[in-house]
Write a structure and sequence with these properties.
By secondary structure, the chain is mainly beta. It is built from 1 helix and 10 strands.
Length: 137
């Protein structure tokens, strides 16, 4: 079981089960939404995610057709994103999880859109666009 929260602590959640590998996204929308060079996402089944408190504090923004970014409307912390065409999955923001994590990043995605001002020096696979299982660039 993993727990997480927003910056102000008003939104708290838990995730039951082991976490999938972290996906590091460099697309321009994620960079804008996070105010950073990239975002760290963890795919989570909606059945494994449980909101413990703060449902009324959550707001969402449809950043592109059918894609919603869910955040705390008090402190602004991004919690997860979800897509209408994948109702069984969330993309949890890894930075909102509490404590130590066993999972690690699997690769950089939308690397073709990365910020030119931040250098990536790791050996993870770098994909020009979305994650494609079994494909390395």
């Amino acid at each position: 079981m993993y727990t997480g929260s927003c910056l102000c602590g008003g939104v708290m959640y838990e995730v039951d089960g082991e976490l999938e590998p972290i996906q590091v996204c460099h697309c321009s929308q994620c960079r804008k939404a996070q105010g950073s060079a990239f975002v760290t996402n963890i795919p989570v089944s909606t059945s494994a995610f449980r909101l413990l408190q703060g449902e009324g504090m959550l707001s969402s923004f449809e950043s592109s057709p059918g894609k919603y970014r869910v955040f705390c409307k008090t402190c602004g912390s991004p919690i997860y994103s979800k897509r209408s065409d994948l109702p069984q999955a969330l993309r949890l923001r890894a930075g909102t999880l509490d404590g130590e994590l066993e999972t690690r990043p699997i690769g950089h995605f939308y690397f073709g859109s990365r910020a030119n001002w931040f250098q990536i020096n790791d050996e993870l696979p770098k994909f020009p666009a979305a994650y494609t299982p079994g494909k390395k660039s």
